[in-house]
Amino acid sequence: MKKETKVKIRKIEHLDDANYKSNSASDQEAGYMTEGIPDNYEVEGVLVEDVKVGSCIELHRNKRNGVSAIGYFRTSQIKAISDNIAKTQNSYYIIEEI
Hints:
Layout: E1 6-14, H1 25-29, E2 42-47, E3 56-64, E4 67-82, E5 85-88, E6 91-97
Antiparallel strand pairs: 1-2, 1-6, 2-3, 3-4, 4-5, 5-6
């Protein structure tokens, strides 16, 4: 997908050999974000750069898990892309244009 595209990104699974293991959703809600984001974490926003192998998914976020949350989101480096699924160093993400 191209820079400036409005997207929804959802983490669908972490890799077993991830550098940063996923937090649980309850840890995140309690404010404990010491490592990776939990599976099923979802953000919406506008891409800062094209989504391509060797880059990170980066976006100006306007929603996090369905709630308004202005901010910035960035994944680890993308290793592979197949259809609308990106495999990063740590996780798999579904990317949908909205």
